[in-house]
Amino acid sequence: MNGASLISTMLLSLDLHDERPLHEQAADAIRRAIAAGEVEPGDRLPPARDLAVAMQINANTVLRALRELREEGLLEFRRGRGVTVLRRPDPEAALRQKLRDLLDEAGRHGYGPDVVVEWIAAEK
């Protein structure tokens, strides 16, 4: 995937109405892109400054998100080479993140977890 596509994916993932800090949203957007195969292990991410400009957030916020993902073992920082994807997140962890995102979104609209469970059960 090229850097512009990754930036577009992450830009669409930020929600200024989301109560979570922007660095968490940015980390989740990158995590989802890796889990979905939009960014493969071995790929380099665009520079943090480019990501920050595209997402209209501070470069330090992007760096905080990247450090979080490095601590999770998803990214590697190399001086002079930028940030490289090491591995994909565990599929269960990725699904749990999607579930948390769904519950957060439902909560912002006034729906509790019980209602979401009912919706899921009705989809069977």
Summarize this entry quickly.
With 124 residues, the protein is mostly helical.
Question: What are its keywords?
Answer:
two-stranded antiparallel sheet, 2 domains, 6 helices, mainly alpha, 124 residues, Arc Repressor Mutant, subunit A
Report on the architecture of this protein.
With 124 residues, the chain is mostly helical. The protein has two domains: 86 residues, Winged helix-like DNA-binding domain superfamily/Winged helix DNA-binding domain (Arc Repressor Mutant, subunit A); 35 residues, no CATH class. 60% of the residues lie in helices and 6% in strands. It is built from six helices and two strands; from the N terminus they run ααααββαα. A two-stranded antiparallel ribbon has the order 1-2. α1 packs across α3 and α3 crosses α4. The longest helix is centred in the last third of the chain and has 18 residues. It is globular, with a radius of gyration of 15 Å. The mean pLDDT is 85.
